[in-house]
């Protein structure tokens, strides 16, 4: 039986599940867990095949969400960063009664750009290039992808080092698992599925993010008028790393009504 790596800590009555992004693991949250622990019971998870959750192969989004949901508390706020945002969104679609709120961070319901639709995102050629490079030099390819996530911020070099250290601190995903994650980013489109979401939904973005352009936030603001978005002006793809205090302050403000 393959088990997810799952750590629970914190003192708050409200449960908060934190899902990391592609190529990484739950250690990515280490800079904010101390600030959030007094307010939430935190659930830190390594997604299937990533970090300490070894023994899984490449998975479809629905299957990944199902595996995580099986070990989750009965009700929780679900927060997902980047690829983790898609997993948290799929959990919400599959089991809305178990979700107090959905929070996506530097994430998109559709990561791949579509010029015909005018939809902003990552060019398909970039994602395909990473898939090709993974078969050749997969560690260096992951490092290259991480560097893209911090471009433009004042602390870009330091933030990239934090992400690299997180990767190196735990078992490395297999090329199969990494390719499976890229396939999700390339193929999944949850825009229509999330149109009628009936749980609180907050979207957090970095103004300088090159992977999830701020234009996407504007389009979704118009499309999803029952959700709310926040853009961190000096952040890129990892606002909780570049601006941890501001990030926690905003998250606590958004969830204040859920933590009474």
UniProtKB/TrEMBL annotation:
GO molecular function, one term: pimelyl-[acyl-carrier protein] methyl ester esterase activity
Known pathway: Cofactor biosynthesis; biotin biosynthesis
InterPro entries given in the database record: AB_hydrolase_1, AB_hydrolase_fold, BioH, Carboxylesterase_BioH
EC number: 3.1.1.85
Record flagged with keyword Cytoplasm: yes
Gene Ontology BP terms: biotin biosynthetic process
Gene Ontology CC entries for this record: cytoplasm
Main localization of the protein described in the UniProt heading: cytoplasm
Subcellular location: Cytoplasm
Signal sequence residues: none
Keyword entries, A-Z: Biotin biosynthesis, Cytoplasm, Hydrolase, Serine esterase
Keyword Hydrolase: yes
Short name of one Pfam family: Abhydrolase_1
Residues annotated as catalytic: 82 (nucleophile), 209, 237
Binding site for substrate: 22, 82-83, 145-149, 237
Catalytic activity: 6-carboxyhexanoyl-[ACP] methyl ester + H2O = 6-carboxyhexanoyl-[ACP] + methanol + H(+)
AB hydrolase-1 domain sequence ranges: 15-244
Function statement: The physiological role of BioH is to remove the methyl group introduced by BioC when the pimeloyl moiety is complete. It allows to synthesize pimeloyl-ACP via the fatty acid synthetic pathway through the hydrolysis of the ester bonds of pimeloyl-ACP esters.
The family this protein is said to belong to: Belongs to the AB hydrolase superfamily. Carboxylesterase BioH family.
Subunit organization: Monomer.
Annotated protein name in UniProt: Pimeloyl-[acyl-carrier protein] methyl ester esterase
Gene assigned in the entry: bioH
């Amino acid at each position: 039986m393959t088990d997810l790596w799952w750590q629970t800590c914190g003192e708050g009555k409200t449960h908060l599940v934190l899902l990391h992004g592609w190529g990484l693991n739950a250690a990515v949250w280490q800079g904010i867990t101390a600030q959030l622990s007094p307010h939430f019971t935190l659930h830190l998870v390594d997604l299937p095949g990533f970090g300490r959750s070894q023994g899984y192969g490449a998975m479809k989004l629905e299957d990944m969400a199902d595996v995580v949901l099986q070990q989750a508390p009965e009700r929780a706020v679900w927060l997902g960063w980047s690829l983790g945002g898609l997993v948290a969104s799929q959990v919400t679609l599959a089991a809305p009664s178990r979700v107090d709120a959905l929070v996506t961070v530097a994430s998109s319901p559709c990561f791949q750009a579509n010029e015909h639709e005018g939809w902003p995102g990552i060019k398909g050629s970039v994602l395909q290039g990473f898939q090709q490079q993974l078969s050749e030099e997969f560690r260096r390819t992951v490092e290259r992808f991480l560097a893209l996530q911090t471009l433009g911020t004042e602390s870009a070099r330091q933030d990239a080092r934090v992400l690299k250290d997180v990767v190196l601190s735990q078992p490395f995903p297999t090329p199969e698992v990494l390719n499976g994650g890229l396939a999700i980013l390339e193929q999944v489109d949850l825009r229509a599925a999330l149109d009628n979401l009936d749980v609180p939904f907050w979207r957090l973005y970095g103004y300088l993010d090159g992977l999830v352009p701020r234009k996407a936030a504007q389009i979704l603001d118009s499309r999803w008028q029952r959700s709310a978005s926040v853009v961190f002006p000096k952040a890129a793809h990892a606002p909780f790393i570049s601006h941890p205090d501001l990030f926690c302050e905003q998250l606590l403000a958004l969830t204040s009504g859920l933590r009474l």
